[in-house]
Amino acid sequence: MKVPTLAATGLSLLCMVGCGGSTLVPTSPSPTISAPAPATSSPAPPDEPTQQVITGSVAPLRSGMTPCYVERYSCNVYGFSMRHDGAVEVTLTWEGGERALLIQLYEAGSRLVHEDLARRGAPPRIQFRRTDLDARAYELRVVNYDGVNTIPFTLTLEKWD
Fold first, then answer.
1. What is the 3-state secondary structure (H, E, C) of the chain?
2. CATH of domain 50-160
3. Segment 28-62, tens digit of pLDDT
4. pLDDT 10s digits, 25-36
């Protein structure tokens, strides 16, 4: 099989350059090869939490009030809804003893989801996060566990839904 002379010479030059033989000087810029742009999907923006801050006070149970917790204590009830499955972070701070308030998270009109009381010897503060909430209505109940004094508080609810 006969290879044309010009093709054979070009092939041998290419082989020499590729294998480290003689050096060839380029006569023009190399053509640019434009690779297709990688497919990008812009990630969904992270869900920003919504925050609600409530300041108030909860009085002890008096006659004429509807008992809230084990029929012995009063509470303030704050409702909120989750549009989608998501998470909440709740912080309750107050003035008074570390065990003066209790907080409960309920599915509205249904079952208790979470209950918390400050640790003994800790500051008057309760903080918790629930990451497993279904899309539905909920209630936060701030319970006057002191039973004697009116307790001022600040309740912060952050939710991701």
1. CCCCHHHHHHHHHHHHHHCCCCCCCCCCCCCCCCCCCCCCCCCCCCCCCEEEEEEEEECCCCCCCCCCECCCECEEEEEEECCCCEEEEEEEEECCCCCCEEEEEEECCCCEEEEEECCCCCCCEEEEEEEEECCCEEEEEEEECCCCCCEEEEEEEEEEC
2. 2.60.120.380
3. 443 434 444 444 444 444 468 899 999 999 999 99
4. 444 443 434 444
Task: Enumerate residues 6+ apart whose C-beta is below 8 A from 2.
Answer: none
Contacts 24+ apart (CB under 8 A), 148-151: 148/60, 149/60, 149/96, 149/100, 150/57, 150/58, 150/59, 150/60, 151/57, 151/58, 151/94, 151/95, 151/96, 151/100, 151/101
What is the pTM for the complete model shown? 0.69
The CA distances from residue 4 to 9, 11, 120, in Å, are 9, 11, 96
Q: Which residue has the tokens 């992270």?
A: 46
